[in-house]
């Protein structure tokens, strides 16, 4: 596994790369990609860090696992490659944006356009075996991504953290709420959304209001 990560991140995360758990994780992931089909493509594992540099970061969205079907995962949580059918959670995200901001539903589910505006789209686990959800959990990725969240909290100010669902909400303990904004809601998956825990959270308009109050450019969702 080639740790292809932008210098703005490397400055703070090099200490993680040098730790024994990360070396074990690298061996595990390398072996998995050699022996089985895994996602995202190996050159996109650290895509979130490449498309959103630490200096530019304004918003963080935390997912759990990459999509595990062909041609979906591209290294950004909830995002899919151009031309790919939108998974149910992403459909619900776009529906909420439609009603919250009166923006028409987009044709592309590729969220790189958000990442380039400073939205950091982080999955807690960065890799997965094909058709096996959660197959790379508890191998070290969570230790690394927790360190990433803590780094953002320590090094930045006025970041808007969007924590959707029980898993993401647990990450609040890594974030200094005195320095940052934390918005929580149910997960956009159909199971949660259809029970009334997602729609109407207005997280996208709220995020832009918070960015405006801190004198930062708004996100074009």
Jot down its keywords.
alpha/beta, Uracil-DNA Glycosylase, subunit E, globular, Uracil-DNA_glycosylase-like_sf, 221 residues, four-stranded parallel sheet
Number of domains: 1
Provide a count of the helices: 9
The CATH homologous superfamily is named: Uracil-DNA glycosylase-like domain
What strand line-up does the widest sheet have?
A: 3-2-5-6
Amino-to-carboxy terminus distance = 32 Å
Structural class: alpha/beta
* CATH class category: Alpha Beta
The total strand number stands at 6
What radius of gyration results from the CA coordinates? Answer: 17 Å
* Percent strand: 5-15%
> Biggest sheet, open or closed, and with what strands and sense?
4 strands, parallel
CATH topology: Uracil-DNA Glycosylase, subunit E
The name of the CATH architecture is 3-Layer(aba) Sandwich
Q: Could you say which overall geometry the principal axes of the C-alpha atoms support?
A: globular
Order of helices and strands: HHEHEHHEEHEHEHH
Helix proportion: 25-40%
Mean pLDDT: 96
InterPro entries: UDG_fam1, Ura-DNA_Glyclase_AS, Uracil-DNA_glycosylase-like, Uracil-DNA_glycosylase-like_sf
Function: Excises uracil residues from the DNA which can arise as a result of misincorporation of dUMP residues by DNA polymerase or due to deamination of cytosine.
Protein name: Uracil-DNA glycosylase
Keywords: Cytoplasm, DNA damage, DNA repair, Hydrolase
């Amino acid at each position: 596994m080639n740790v292809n990560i932008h210098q703005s991140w490397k400055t703070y995360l090099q200490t993680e790369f040098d730790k024994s758990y990360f070396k074990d994780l690298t061996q595990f992931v390398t072996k998995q990609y050699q022996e089985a089909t895994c996602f995202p493509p190996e050159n996109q594992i650290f895509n979130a860090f490449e498309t959103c540099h630490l200096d530019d970061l304004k918003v963080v969205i935390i997912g759990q696992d990459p999509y595990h079907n062909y041609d979906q995962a591209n290294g950004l949580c909830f995002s899919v490659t151009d031309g790919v059918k939108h998974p149910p959670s992403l459909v619900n995200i776009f529906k909420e944006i439609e009603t919250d901001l009166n923006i028409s539903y987009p044709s592309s589910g590729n969220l790189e356009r958000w990442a380039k505006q400073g939205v950091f789209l982080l999955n807690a686990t960065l890799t997965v075996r094909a058709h096996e959800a959660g197959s790379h959990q508890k191998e070290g990725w969570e230790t690394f991504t927790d360190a990433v969240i803590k780094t953002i909290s320590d090094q930045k100010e006025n970041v808007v953290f969007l924590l959707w669902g029980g898993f993401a909400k647990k990450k609040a303990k890594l974030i200094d709420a005195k320095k940052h904004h934390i918005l929580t809601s149910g997960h956009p998956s159909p199971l949660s959304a259809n029970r009334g825990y997602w729609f109407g959270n207005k997280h996208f308009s709220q995020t832009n209001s918070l960015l405006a109050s801190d004198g930062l450019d708004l996100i074009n969702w």
